[in-house]
Every structure is written in C-alpha cells, then in structure tokens.
C-alpha cells in the first residue's frame, strides 16, 4: 500500500508541486539579486557618491562631471548585476525544465541502477 501511495504522489501531486515551485523559485532569485531595486535606481549615482557644486563655474562644471561619471559607473555596475540575474534565472528555468522531464523517469531509474550495479 505504501508503494502505491508513493507512485500516486510521485506522478500526481509531487509532479505538480515541482511545477508549482517554478514561480517562487524565480521570485526568490529576483529578490536575491534585488532586481526591482536595481531597475528603480539604474541611473542613480554609484554608492551615492555626489559632488556638490561650488560657487565658481569651474567648480560647478567639475561637480557635474563627477556626478555624471558616478552615474555612469552606477549604471554599468547595476546593469552587470541585472545581466547576472538574468543568466541565473535562465539557468534556473532550464534546470526546472530538465527536472520536469526527468521526474517521471526517476522511480524507474532506481531499480535499473541497482541492477546495473549488480551486473557490472
């Protein structure tokens, strides 16, 4: 009876649970990389490094250049992290597809591997 219950869960609710875990898995990855915050602050200065303008035109021009450089650095660093998040999300999606394809074969593989181990 236990074996029948196992197979009933494996090919029923278990397979559905693996499929349903895909969305929360992607959401956890997005949260780990802070994707929402990175997209909101994509053009923000890097590490809030801001130069305040002085009284002269030269000081204002230097402050504008420093702040622009800080924003460009911040943009590229955040863009690199967003690209890394995209790669991890694509990899997780690929692994989930592989998991869904292999899931029904695993109960069959266990006796097959035991037999192959005894024969070899």
Give a written overview of the molecule.
- By secondary structure, the chain is mostly helical.
- It has one domain (2-119).
- It is built from 5 helices and no strands.
- Helix 2 (22-32) runs antiparallel to helix 4.
- The longest helix has 46 residues, at 57-102.
Key terms:
mainly alpha, 0% strand, rod-shaped, 120 residues
Layout: helices, strands, pairs:
Layout: H1 2-20, H2 22-32, H3 35-40, H4 57-102, H5 106-119
Helix pairs in contact: 2-4
In short:
It contains five helices and no strands. It has helices at 2-20, 22-32, 35-40, 57-102, 106-119. Helix 2 runs antiparallel to helix 4.
What is the 3D shape? rod-shaped
Separation, N- and C-terminal Cα atoms: 32 Å
Kindly state the number of beta strands.
Answer: 0
State the order of secondary-structure elements, H for helix, E for strand.
HHHHH
* Structure class: mainly alpha
- Specify the number of helices: 5
Low-pLDDT segments, ≥5 res: none
Largest sheet: none
Overall helicity: over 70%
User: In percent terms, what proportion of residues is strand?
Assistant: under 5%
Give the averaged pLDDT, no decimals.
Answer: 91
Number of domains: 1
Measured on Cα atoms, how large is the radius of gyration? 26 Å
């Amino acid at each position: 009876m236990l074996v029948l219950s196992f197979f009933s869960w494996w090919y029923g609710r278990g397979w559905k649970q693996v499929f349903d875990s895909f969305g929360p898995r992607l959401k956890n990855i997005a949260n780990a990389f802070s994707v929402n915050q990175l997209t909101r602050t994509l053009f923000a200065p890097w590490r809030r490094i801001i130069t305040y303008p002085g009284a002269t035109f030269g000081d204002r021009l230097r402050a504008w250049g420093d702040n622009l450089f800080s924003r460009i650095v911040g943009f590229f660093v955040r863009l690199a992290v967003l690209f890394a998040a995209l790669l991890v999300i694509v990899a997780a999606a690929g692994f989930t597809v592989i998991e869904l394809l292999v899931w029904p074969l695993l109960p069959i593989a266990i006796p097959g591997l035991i037999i192959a181990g005894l024969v070899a």
